[in-house]
From TrEMBL:
Record-level GO BP terms: retinal metabolic process; retinol metabolic process
InterPro entries on file: NAD(P)-bd_dom_sf (IPR036291), Sc_DH/Rdtase_CS (IPR020904), SDR_fam (IPR002347)
GO molecular function: all-trans-retinol dehydrogenase (NAD+) activity
Sequence similarity: Belongs to the short-chain dehydrogenases/reductases (SDR) family.
GO cellular component, one term: cytoplasm
SUPFAM superfamilies: NAD(P)-binding Rossmann-fold domains
UniProt name for this protein: Fat body protein 2
Pfam families per the UniProt record, alphabetical: adh_short (PF00106)
Ranges in a coiled coil: none
Keywords: Oxidoreductase
Amino acid sequence: MAYRGKNAVVTGGAGGIGLQVARQLLSNGAAKVAIIDLQDNLEEFVKLRAAHPTQSVMIIKMDVANRKGIEATYEEIVKTFGSIDIVVNVAGIFNDKDVQRTLLVNLGGIMNSTLSALQYMNKENGGNGGLIVNMSSVVGLDPMFIIPVYGATKAGIINFTRCLGNDQFYQRSGIKFVTVCPGATMTDMFTNFTEKIIFPETSDETYKILDRLNKQSATDVARCILSVLDKEKNGAVYVIEGKRVFPLELKQQWTGKEHA
Ligand code: NAD
Ligand code: MG
């Protein structure tokens, strides 16, 4: 999908990977970009607008865990933009000590934003169709014992997005769904990490594990996400690691046939 002239929504766009995605969408010619985030980042938003004076940048302060709030947010975006072509759901947190909040933000937030957006994007409702990209993680694929709660929400995102990335649904809706799974990335996400893990006794070991990991930049991850938008492969799951992006080979496990 070319981004030129398209209208996009980015959740979690006030910082980290999301901000880089919003920035790159604008520099690649997106017409209008809406950023949904709990937090402000006035300095960066002023810069974004100054760098793209002929494009629209809409900032909405909203919690993705708030279903009614997110529904109202999409209504507002569509009223202002006219339509939505691209959604990149990036908002997420790490805090395994707060199970409820992690579920509501990481998994609930992706569901709230995706399900609200698709109503407006759906061709059956007069939308343009388009592409929704959901942010998982490599730890949603490969279990990492120190972060089971976060990992489970990221695994859930993959299944949710693959369910929707179904060609029969695409024929009706015109919407494609893709999951991205970056490896460790340099952002604020893991600040005070050892205070947010559920087994503090493993924190020495955790430090060692984290230290060994190669960490990529948010800019590189965003570049890979834009290349995934270009590929438009419905239902695909991509790993993003060190400037590289590659699709997973996923085969069906269940046949539904009787065994001999
Ligand atoms: P970050 O903390 O820099 O950015 C997350 C953004 O989401 C922030 O701007 C934050 O304010 C926003 N946000 C958090 N909760 C929100 C809510 N309830 N409603 C709206 N906005 C909310 O972290 P990041 O590393 O850029 O993370 C972005 C996404 O990438 C997350 O989903 C994360 O799980 C995922 N991810 C991160 C890494 C990594 O190593 N950093 C690796 C793989 C996947
Ligand atoms: Mg971010």
